[in-house]
Specification:
- The complex is a heterodimer.
- In chain A, 18% of the residues lie in helices and 24% in strands.
- Chain A is α+β, with helices and mostly antiparallel strands.
- In chain A, the strands form 2 sheets. A 5-stranded antiparallel sheet of chain A has the order 6-5-4-1-7, with no helix packed on it. Chain A has a two-stranded antiparallel sheet with strand order 2-3.
- In chain A, strand 4 (45-52) and strand 5 form a beta hairpin.
- In chain B, helix 1 packs across helix 2 (29-50) and helix 8 (165-175) packs across helix 9 (185-197).
- Chain B is mainly α.
- Chain B is built from 14 helices and 3 strands.
- The N and C termini of chain B lie far apart (69 Å).
- The radius of gyration of chain B is 21 Å and the shape is globular.
- In chain B, strand 2 (114-117) and strand 3 form a beta hairpin.
- The chains are: A alpha+beta, B mainly alpha.
- At the A-B interface, strand 7, helix 2, helix 3 and helix 4 of A face helix 3, helix 4, strand 1, helix 5 and helix 6 of B.
Chain lengths: 163, 286
């Protein structure tokens, strides 16, 4: 469980829901070589219990276990009940797929507001004041234990159905 | 209309009209003459885009960002602004353009969106930030926006729109020699039009594909961006907070489909990394 406390940082707060984008195997663990414990049919409904890296832990009529995150399309996100003491704490955490959405302050940035916008050079100067230089960025990465990885860009996929 | 009063600017307007009206007015000799001239102008505009210097690109980005900031100001939270800048600058160091004057900001707006401008000015809305669950998700969003800059997607969009007034306005202002540094209405009008039109759909897919890699290079779980797209997919397309993003981007489901086919399991060895806890502390208040 100690490992999960570290690794499950991105666990969904409550039961989100989704559907299978394609038929896929349900696995015992979040690993491609894990045992198959069920089958998920295309468009089958799932409850999403957790996310870990590229995997989601789900419950479904076809079984309970882990499937690839990208095999699921999330359709509902449960409202969060977590406390919010950070900079966004004055916001009610927005909810989707259900509960009420509380909006505060400037709405901004819809089509009309962009059309009516007058360039704000004072804000642009303010933005420059927050810029980080390279050494600061390096320190930011190092302080969180982030390490540079060698990763090549991905090839564009073949057209749908062309595989 | 005589040639004498047809300014270069007017020809560009005719280019736009010609594109739209070509089927309606095929037989008019005068029109054909103007069309030929318009095509020549459009070609020189295309050349101007590809020859835009980095300084001009940055100058354009500044006007672009100032226009966005005119629609919504920065959130009044210096520590949060500094945090997003450090994170964004860290990711930019893993890109092919690490020496641009990258700047990042959080806009005081409940709309859910993120914007890149030429030259490396990147803005995310408070509304988007409030829906993210981890630093890896923010890294994925910033990786997507950084890709728009390094791949010069806006300059491509300008070039594509060069026959239209928006592209012509931007290019004539940015590339004009001795341009008055004061922002002109024509330039800002062109920027707004392109902002509302959005970028090419394939450029959005490319930004997703390269954004996940930039996040992975910077040490993050590459599944942060897919998780954000999943969150967007669960939201209603009729939600007014999403109207602009949904009208300028492919649907989240299409982006997830395309990303799934590009990623496969190739980046799985970088997945599932724990966060440092600072996003949780600073943004989520845990």
């Amino acid at each position: 469980m100690g490992i999960c406390l570290l690794l499950c940082a991105a666990v969904a707060q409550a039961q989100d829901s989704g559907v299978a984008a394609r038929a896929t195997e349900i696995l015992k663990d979040p690993s491609a070589d894990s045992a198959v414990v069920g089958q998920l049919q295309e468009a089958a409904a799932v409850k999403i219990l957790a996310r870990q890296g590229g995997w989601m832990r789900i419950e479904s009529a076809g079984g309970n276990g882990w499937v690839r995150l990208l095999a699921i399309r999330t359709t509902g996100v449960a409202p969060s009940t977590q406390s919010r003491g950070g900079f966004l704490s004055f916001l009610s955490r927005p909810s989707t797929g259900g509960g009420q959405t509380v909006t505060t302050g400037v709405r901004g940035l819809d089509k009309e507001q962009i059309q009516n916008a007058k360039p704000n050079t004072a804000e642009l100067q303010k933005m420059a004041g927050f810029a980080a230089n390279k050494p600061e960025a390096e320190r930011f990465g190092a302080s969180a234990g982030l390490t540079r990885q060698q990763v090549g860009y991905l090839k564009p996929p073949a057209a749908p159905g062309g595989q | 209309m005589t040639d004498a009063i047809i300014s270069a600017m007017r020809i560009r307007a005719i280019a736009a009209a010609a594109t739209l009206a070509i089927a309606a007015l095929p037989a008019q000799a005068q029109f054909r003459l103007d069309l030929n001239r318009a095509i020549d102008t459009a070609k020189s505009i295309g050349k101007a885009t590809t020859q835009m210097t980095e300084a001009q690109e940055i100058d354009l980005g500044k006007q672009w960002a100032a226009t966005l900031l005119g629609a919504a100001p920065l959130m009044a939270h210096p520590e949060l602004q500094s945090y997003v800048n450090a994170l964004g600058r860290w990711i930019s160091l893993h890109s092919e353009r690490p020496d641009l004057p990258w700047q990042f900001g959080v806009l005081e707006s409940d709309n859910i969106n993120a914007f890149a401008t030429p030259g490396g000015y990147i803005l995310v809305t408070k509304g988007l930030l409030a829906r993210l669950k981890s630093e890896a998700e923010l890294a994925g969003v910033l990786g997507h926006e950084i890709t728009h800059v390094i791949q010069k997607h806006h300059l491509k969009a300008i070039q594509k729109a060069a026959g239209l007034q928006a592209g012509a306005n931007i290019l004539s202002e940015v590339t004009a020699k001795g341009r008055n540094p004061a922002v002109t209405d024509r330039l800002v009008g062109g920027i707004k039009e392109l902002m509302l039109r959005g970028l090419d759909k394939d450029d959005e897919f490319e930004s997703d594909r390269m954004g996940v890699v930039l996040a992975a290079r910077a040490g993050y779980d590459p599944y942060g961006l897919p998780a954000v797209l999943q969150m967007l997919n669960a939201m209603s397309a009729s939600d007014s907070e999403l109207a602009l993003m949904f009208s300028t981007h492919p649907a989240p489901s299409a982006r997830l489909d395309t990303l799934e086919r590009a990623m496969g399991s190739q980046l799985d060895r970088f997945a599932g990394k724990p966060g440092s806890g600072r996003f949780e502390k600073l943004v989520l208040g845990r």
